[in-house]
């Protein structure tokens, strides 16, 4: 059932997830600007959009490489989509803590970094659950069995 979707369907899902991932990166990075950047605002915006375009280009190259493989690409595209969906799900709920930690480190760069245990546990738990869930889903299909 999970892999009854054709490869082009999974490629579309992976493309949408990639665009969503980059849009989420934009949301996560809002409020945190590189310290000491003296360029005009227009240049900063252009550089930021270029960075997003480069990330999208790299993701497109990764998707293209996965589609060129000789074995069926559905399983790879499923794992790709699951993980690129899990990363924003792990980071968005703790975004405020991330921003506060980055800004505190910038205010006092010589102070030792203090680990935020809740943030660490949350991110690790969400990503671990996503990996285990994706692998379990993959193992219930014919793609998960050797032979």
TrEMBL record:
Record keywords, A-Z: Membrane, Transmembrane, Transmembrane helix
Ranges that cross the membrane: 6-28, 49-68, 74-98, 119-139
Record-given protein name: Transmembrane protein
Lineage: Bacteria, Bacillati, Actinomycetota, Actinomycetes, Kitasatosporales
